[in-house]
Amino acid sequence: MTNKTKIKLENISYSYAGNKAVENLSFSLPTGKYLTILGPSGCGKTTILKMIGGYLYPTKGKIYIDDKNVTEMDSCSRKIGMVFQNYLLFPHLSARKNISFPLEIRHQPKNDREKKVDEISELVGLTKKEIERKPSELSGGQQQRVALARALIFEPQLLLLDEPLANLDKELKTQLLNEIRNLQKTIKVTTIMVTHDHEEALSGSDLIGIMNQGKLLQIDEPKIIYEKPSCSLIANHFGQANILPAKYFGLKNDATVLIRPEKIKINLNAINCTWKNQGKISSILFMGSHLLINLMLYDGTELKLLTSDSYPFAVDSIITIGIDIENVWLIPETI
Ligand code: ATP
User: Domains (ranges, CATH) in the chain?
Assistant: First the structure.
Protein backbone atom coordinates (compact mmCIF):
# COMPACT_ATOMS: atom_id res chain seq x y z
CA MET A 1 0.00 0.00 0.00
CA THR A 2 2.65 2.52 1.05
CA ASN A 3 4.69 1.75 -2.05
CA LYS A 4 1.94 2.98 -4.37
CA THR A 5 2.76 6.22 -6.11
CA LYS A 6 0.48 8.99 -4.90
CA ILE A 7 1.77 11.76 -7.08
CA LYS A 8 4.02 11.96 -10.07
CA LEU A 9 5.30 15.05 -11.87
CA GLU A 10 6.70 14.44 -15.33
CA ASN A 11 8.92 17.07 -16.99
CA ILE A 12 6.93 19.96 -15.53
CA SER A 13 7.75 23.53 -16.55
CA TYR A 14 6.04 26.82 -15.80
CA SER A 15 6.67 30.33 -17.09
CA TYR A 16 5.10 33.58 -15.93
CA ALA A 17 4.71 35.71 -19.09
CA GLY A 18 7.72 34.05 -20.68
CA ASN A 19 9.87 34.03 -17.52
CA LYS A 20 10.77 30.50 -16.48
CA ALA A 21 9.84 29.75 -12.84
CA VAL A 22 10.02 25.94 -12.94
CA GLU A 23 12.02 23.98 -15.47
CA ASN A 24 11.67 20.38 -16.53
CA LEU A 25 10.98 19.04 -13.07
CA SER A 26 10.15 15.39 -12.38
CA PHE A 27 9.60 13.41 -9.20
CA SER A 28 7.23 10.88 -7.74
CA LEU A 29 6.11 10.44 -4.16
CA PRO A 30 4.76 7.21 -2.66
CA THR A 31 1.46 7.20 -0.76
CA GLY A 32 1.68 8.33 2.86
CA LYS A 33 5.11 9.95 2.56
CA TYR A 34 6.15 13.42 3.65
CA LEU A 35 8.23 15.35 1.14
CA THR A 36 9.78 18.71 1.92
CA ILE A 37 10.84 20.87 -1.01
CA LEU A 38 13.64 23.15 0.08
CA GLY A 39 15.13 26.09 -1.75
CA PRO A 40 15.84 29.81 -1.59
CA SER A 41 13.22 32.48 -2.11
CA GLY A 42 12.06 32.71 -5.73
CA CYS A 43 13.30 29.25 -6.80
CA GLY A 44 9.81 28.10 -7.78
CA LYS A 45 8.52 26.21 -4.71
CA THR A 46 5.10 27.88 -4.51
CA THR A 47 4.66 27.58 -8.26
CA ILE A 48 5.07 23.79 -7.95
CA LEU A 49 2.47 23.58 -5.19
CA LYS A 50 0.07 25.73 -7.18
CA MET A 51 0.43 23.41 -10.18
CA ILE A 52 -0.15 20.33 -8.01
CA GLY A 53 -3.13 22.04 -6.39
CA GLY A 54 -4.61 22.99 -9.75
CA TYR A 55 -4.32 26.76 -9.27
CA LEU A 56 -1.85 27.01 -12.17
CA TYR A 57 -1.57 24.75 -15.20
CA PRO A 58 1.92 23.70 -16.31
CA THR A 59 3.28 25.23 -19.49
CA LYS A 60 4.74 21.79 -20.20
CA GLY A 61 4.63 18.32 -18.67
CA LYS A 62 2.12 16.14 -16.85
CA ILE A 63 0.87 15.63 -13.30
CA TYR A 64 -0.56 12.31 -12.11
CA ILE A 65 -2.38 11.65 -8.84
CA ASP A 66 -3.02 7.96 -8.13
CA ASP A 67 -1.93 7.23 -11.70
CA LYS A 68 -4.63 9.55 -13.10
CA ASN A 69 -3.55 12.40 -15.34
CA VAL A 70 -4.84 15.52 -13.55
CA THR A 71 -2.75 18.07 -15.46
CA GLU A 72 -5.76 19.96 -16.74
CA MET A 73 -8.22 19.15 -13.95
CA ASP A 74 -9.47 22.16 -11.97
CA SER A 75 -8.51 22.59 -8.32
CA CYS A 76 -11.99 21.74 -6.90
CA SER A 77 -11.95 18.31 -8.55
CA ARG A 78 -8.53 17.35 -7.17
CA LYS A 79 -9.39 16.78 -3.47
CA ILE A 80 -6.25 18.48 -2.23
CA GLY A 81 -5.88 20.29 1.10
CA MET A 82 -3.62 23.32 1.06
CA VAL A 83 -2.26 25.52 3.85
CA PHE A 84 -0.73 28.82 2.81
CA GLN A 85 1.93 30.91 4.49
CA ASN A 86 -0.61 33.54 5.60
CA TYR A 87 -3.36 30.99 6.37
CA LEU A 88 -5.97 32.82 4.17
CA LEU A 89 -8.74 32.37 6.74
CA PHE A 90 -12.06 34.18 6.25
CA PRO A 91 -11.81 37.02 8.80
CA HIS A 92 -15.59 37.45 9.28
CA LEU A 93 -16.21 33.77 10.07
CA SER A 94 -15.52 31.91 13.32
CA ALA A 95 -12.79 29.27 13.36
CA ARG A 96 -15.59 26.66 13.38
CA LYS A 97 -17.12 28.10 10.20
CA ASN A 98 -13.71 28.41 8.57
CA ILE A 99 -12.94 24.77 9.31
CA SER A 100 -16.31 23.49 8.08
CA PHE A 101 -16.21 25.61 4.89
CA PRO A 102 -14.87 22.81 2.61
CA LEU A 103 -17.72 20.57 3.80
CA GLU A 104 -20.32 23.29 3.25
CA ILE A 105 -19.31 23.80 -0.36
CA ARG A 106 -19.52 20.03 -0.76
CA HIS A 107 -23.08 20.20 0.65
CA GLN A 108 -22.52 17.87 3.59
CA PRO A 109 -25.38 17.73 6.15
CA LYS A 110 -25.01 20.11 9.13
CA ASN A 111 -24.83 17.35 11.77
CA ASP A 112 -22.00 15.60 9.94
CA ARG A 113 -20.16 18.88 9.51
CA GLU A 114 -20.37 19.77 13.18
CA LYS A 115 -19.20 16.32 14.23
CA LYS A 116 -16.25 16.44 11.84
CA VAL A 117 -15.26 19.95 12.95
CA ASP A 118 -15.17 18.77 16.57
CA GLU A 119 -13.08 15.73 15.67
CA ILE A 120 -10.55 17.51 13.48
CA SER A 121 -10.23 20.48 15.89
CA GLU A 122 -9.31 18.11 18.66
CA LEU A 123 -6.81 16.38 16.40
CA VAL A 124 -5.01 19.65 15.59
CA GLY A 125 -5.11 20.81 19.22
CA LEU A 126 -7.82 23.49 19.20
CA THR A 127 -10.10 23.79 22.21
CA LYS A 128 -13.91 24.07 22.03
CA LYS A 129 -13.69 27.72 23.11
CA GLU A 130 -11.05 28.59 20.51
CA ILE A 131 -13.07 27.33 17.56
CA GLU A 132 -15.92 29.71 18.38
CA ARG A 133 -13.59 32.73 17.98
CA LYS A 134 -12.81 34.70 14.84
CA PRO A 135 -9.27 34.48 13.38
CA SER A 136 -8.38 37.96 14.71
CA GLU A 137 -9.07 36.67 18.24
CA LEU A 138 -6.60 33.80 17.85
CA SER A 139 -2.80 33.67 18.06
CA GLY A 140 -0.65 32.94 14.98
CA GLY A 141 -0.18 29.34 16.09
CA GLN A 142 -3.90 28.86 16.66
CA GLN A 143 -4.70 30.36 13.25
CA GLN A 144 -2.24 27.94 11.73
CA ARG A 145 -4.09 25.06 13.43
CA VAL A 146 -7.39 26.35 12.02
CA ALA A 147 -5.88 26.48 8.52
CA LEU A 148 -4.55 22.94 8.96
CA ALA A 149 -7.91 21.66 10.24
CA ARG A 150 -9.66 23.29 7.26
CA ALA A 151 -7.22 21.62 4.86
CA LEU A 152 -7.73 18.20 6.44
CA ILE A 153 -11.46 18.13 7.16
CA PHE A 154 -12.51 16.72 3.82
CA GLU A 155 -9.92 13.93 4.00
CA PRO A 156 -7.79 15.14 1.09
CA GLN A 157 -5.78 12.80 -1.11
CA LEU A 158 -2.85 15.12 -0.70
CA LEU A 159 -1.89 17.83 1.76
CA LEU A 160 0.15 20.78 0.47
CA LEU A 161 1.85 23.10 2.96
CA ASP A 162 3.32 26.35 1.66
CA GLU A 163 5.71 27.61 4.37
CA PRO A 164 2.92 27.15 6.92
CA LEU A 165 5.15 28.09 9.85
CA ALA A 166 6.92 31.08 8.35
CA ASN A 167 5.18 33.65 10.56
CA LEU A 168 5.75 31.88 13.86
CA ASP A 169 8.59 32.12 16.38
CA LYS A 170 11.23 29.40 16.47
CA GLU A 171 9.95 27.52 19.52
CA LEU A 172 6.36 27.37 18.28
CA LYS A 173 7.61 26.45 14.83
CA THR A 174 9.45 23.39 16.17
CA GLN A 175 6.47 22.34 18.28
CA LEU A 176 3.96 22.71 15.44
CA LEU A 177 6.24 21.02 12.96
CA ASN A 178 6.42 17.97 15.25
CA GLU A 179 2.67 18.04 15.69
CA ILE A 180 2.07 18.27 11.93
CA ARG A 181 4.45 15.38 11.35
CA ASN A 182 2.77 13.21 14.02
CA LEU A 183 -0.65 14.08 12.66
CA GLN A 184 0.47 13.28 9.13
CA LYS A 185 1.73 9.88 10.30
CA THR A 186 -1.51 9.18 12.18
CA ILE A 187 -3.84 9.99 9.31
CA LYS A 188 -1.30 8.82 6.69
CA VAL A 189 -1.97 11.70 4.34
CA THR A 190 0.65 12.13 1.61
CA THR A 191 2.14 15.56 2.22
CA ILE A 192 4.33 18.05 0.38
CA MET A 193 5.66 21.00 2.33
CA VAL A 194 7.80 23.79 0.91
CA THR A 195 10.22 25.84 2.95
CA HIS A 196 13.48 27.74 2.69
CA ASP A 197 14.50 26.68 6.21
CA HIS A 198 16.75 23.62 6.08
CA GLU A 199 16.24 22.78 9.77
CA GLU A 200 12.51 22.48 9.04
CA ALA A 201 13.28 20.23 6.09
CA LEU A 202 15.49 17.94 8.13
CA SER A 203 13.03 17.42 10.98
CA GLY A 204 11.00 14.42 10.11
CA SER A 205 10.73 14.51 6.31
CA ASP A 206 10.74 11.13 4.57
CA LEU A 207 12.21 12.81 1.51
CA ILE A 208 13.77 16.17 0.79
CA GLY A 209 13.80 17.78 -2.64
CA ILE A 210 16.36 20.53 -3.13
CA MET A 211 15.57 23.25 -5.64
CA ASN A 212 17.57 26.07 -7.12
CA GLN A 213 16.53 28.50 -9.85
CA GLY A 214 13.50 26.51 -10.96
CA LYS A 215 15.33 23.18 -11.09
CA LEU A 216 15.21 20.17 -8.80
CA LEU A 217 18.83 19.38 -7.91
CA GLN A 218 18.23 16.26 -5.82
CA ILE A 219 15.41 14.36 -4.15
CA ASP A 220 16.35 11.76 -1.56
CA GLU A 221 16.09 10.69 2.06
CA PRO A 222 17.58 13.29 4.46
CA LYS A 223 20.50 10.99 5.36
CA ILE A 224 21.43 10.54 1.69
CA ILE A 225 21.15 14.27 1.03
CA TYR A 226 23.54 14.85 3.94
CA GLU A 227 26.02 12.08 3.17
CA LYS A 228 25.83 11.93 -0.61
CA PRO A 229 24.80 15.34 -1.97
CA SER A 230 24.60 15.59 -5.74
CA CYS A 231 26.46 18.93 -5.82
CA SER A 232 28.59 21.18 -3.61
CA LEU A 233 25.75 23.67 -3.23
CA ILE A 234 23.77 21.02 -1.33
CA ALA A 235 26.88 19.80 0.54
CA ASN A 236 27.43 23.31 1.88
CA HIS A 237 23.78 23.89 2.68
CA PHE A 238 23.43 20.98 5.10
CA GLY A 239 25.69 21.23 8.11
CA GLN A 240 29.46 21.71 8.14
CA ALA A 241 31.39 20.55 5.10
CA ASN A 242 34.98 20.09 3.93
CA ILE A 243 35.08 20.34 0.15
CA LEU A 244 38.44 19.49 -1.36
CA PRO A 245 39.87 18.70 -4.80
CA ALA A 246 39.37 15.00 -5.51
CA LYS A 247 42.99 14.65 -6.61
CA TYR A 248 43.93 15.18 -2.96
CA PHE A 249 42.71 11.62 -2.40
CA GLY A 250 44.02 10.26 -5.67
CA LEU A 251 40.57 10.49 -7.28
CA LYS A 252 39.32 12.09 -10.54
CA ASN A 253 41.31 15.22 -11.39
CA ASP A 254 38.77 17.97 -11.93
CA ALA A 255 36.14 16.85 -9.38
CA THR A 256 35.66 17.75 -5.72
CA VAL A 257 34.95 15.59 -2.70
CA LEU A 258 32.97 16.08 0.50
CA ILE A 259 34.22 14.99 3.91
CA ARG A 260 31.92 15.72 6.82
CA PRO A 261 33.88 17.12 9.80
CA GLU A 262 32.58 14.43 12.20
CA LYS A 263 34.00 11.70 9.92
CA ILE A 264 37.60 12.84 10.44
CA LYS A 265 39.37 10.77 13.09
CA ILE A 266 41.94 12.26 15.44
CA ASN A 267 45.23 11.01 16.98
CA LEU A 268 44.94 7.39 18.22
CA ASN A 269 41.60 6.91 16.45
CA ALA A 270 43.30 7.77 13.16
CA ILE A 271 45.89 4.98 13.31
CA ASN A 272 44.06 2.52 11.06
CA CYS A 273 42.72 5.05 8.56
CA THR A 274 43.51 4.67 4.87
CA TRP A 275 44.46 8.39 4.54
CA LYS A 276 46.47 10.14 7.25
CA ASN A 277 47.96 13.59 7.69
CA GLN A 278 49.09 16.08 10.31
CA GLY A 279 48.11 19.67 10.95
CA LYS A 280 48.13 22.56 13.34
CA ILE A 281 44.98 23.65 15.21
CA SER A 282 44.14 27.22 14.23
CA SER A 283 40.98 27.65 16.29
CA ILE A 284 38.65 25.75 18.59
CA LEU A 285 34.98 26.56 18.99
CA PHE A 286 33.06 25.10 21.92
CA MET A 287 29.62 24.01 20.69
CA GLY A 288 28.16 22.38 23.78
CA SER A 289 28.11 18.67 22.99
CA HIS A 290 31.20 18.89 20.75
CA LEU A 291 34.10 21.03 19.56
CA LEU A 292 34.52 22.52 16.12
CA ILE A 293 38.24 22.54 15.33
CA ASN A 294 39.80 24.38 12.42
CA LEU A 295 42.98 22.68 11.28
CA MET A 296 45.69 23.83 8.90
CA LEU A 297 47.56 21.02 7.15
CA TYR A 298 51.24 21.50 6.25
CA ASP A 299 50.36 22.23 2.61
CA GLY A 300 48.00 25.05 3.65
CA THR A 301 44.76 23.06 3.25
CA GLU A 302 42.17 24.01 5.85
CA LEU A 303 39.89 21.41 7.40
CA LYS A 304 37.02 21.50 9.87
CA LEU A 305 36.78 18.75 12.45
CA LEU A 306 33.92 18.01 14.82
CA THR A 307 34.74 15.98 17.89
CA SER A 308 33.22 15.07 21.22
CA ASP A 309 36.60 13.72 22.37
CA SER A 310 37.57 14.87 25.89
CA TYR A 311 41.27 15.19 24.86
CA PRO A 312 42.62 18.65 25.88
CA PHE A 313 42.96 20.17 22.39
CA ALA A 314 44.88 23.47 22.25
CA VAL A 315 45.35 26.11 19.58
CA ASP A 316 48.74 25.82 17.78
CA SER A 317 49.23 22.17 18.81
CA ILE A 318 49.86 19.52 16.16
CA ILE A 319 47.45 16.61 15.75
CA THR A 320 47.27 13.59 13.49
CA ILE A 321 44.09 13.09 11.52
CA GLY A 322 42.78 10.18 9.50
CA ILE A 323 40.01 9.65 6.98
CA ASP A 324 38.60 6.34 5.81
CA ILE A 325 38.13 6.35 2.07
CA GLU A 326 34.46 5.25 2.43
CA ASN A 327 33.81 8.60 4.13
CA VAL A 328 35.09 10.54 1.12
CA TRP A 329 32.15 11.39 -1.15
CA LEU A 330 32.97 12.23 -4.75
CA ILE A 331 30.53 15.03 -5.60
CA PRO A 332 28.91 14.21 -8.96
CA GLU A 333 28.22 17.78 -10.13
CA THR A 334 30.13 21.02 -9.86
CA ILE A 335 27.45 23.66 -9.05
P1 ATP B 1 9.32 32.22 -1.82
O2 ATP B 1 10.10 31.25 -0.96
O3 ATP B 1 9.84 33.61 -1.74
O4 ATP B 1 7.83 32.12 -1.61
P5 ATP B 1 9.24 30.48 -4.15
O6 ATP B 1 10.41 29.57 -4.20
O7 ATP B 1 7.97 29.92 -3.65
O8 ATP B 1 9.62 31.81 -3.37
P9 ATP B 1 7.72 31.23 -6.50
O10 ATP B 1 6.72 32.04 -5.76
O11 ATP B 1 7.29 29.92 -7.03
O12 ATP B 1 9.06 31.05 -5.65
O13 ATP B 1 8.27 32.12 -7.71
C14 ATP B 1 9.18 31.61 -8.67
C15 ATP B 1 9.54 32.75 -9.63
O16 ATP B 1 8.40 33.17 -10.35
C17 ATP B 1 10.10 33.99 -8.94
O18 ATP B 1 11.12 34.52 -9.73
C19 ATP B 1 8.91 34.94 -8.90
O20 ATP B 1 9.33 36.28 -8.94
C21 ATP B 1 8.15 34.56 -10.15
N22 ATP B 1 6.67 34.73 -9.96
C23 ATP B 1 5.92 34.20 -9.00
N24 ATP B 1 4.63 34.55 -9.14
C25 ATP B 1 4.58 35.36 -10.23
C26 ATP B 1 3.52 36.05 -10.90
N27 ATP B 1 2.28 35.97 -10.49
N28 ATP B 1 3.86 36.79 -11.99
C29 ATP B 1 5.13 36.85 -12.44
N30 ATP B 1 6.16 36.22 -11.86
C31 ATP B 1 5.90 35.49 -10.76
Answer: 5-235 (3.40.50.300), 241-331 (2.40.50.140)
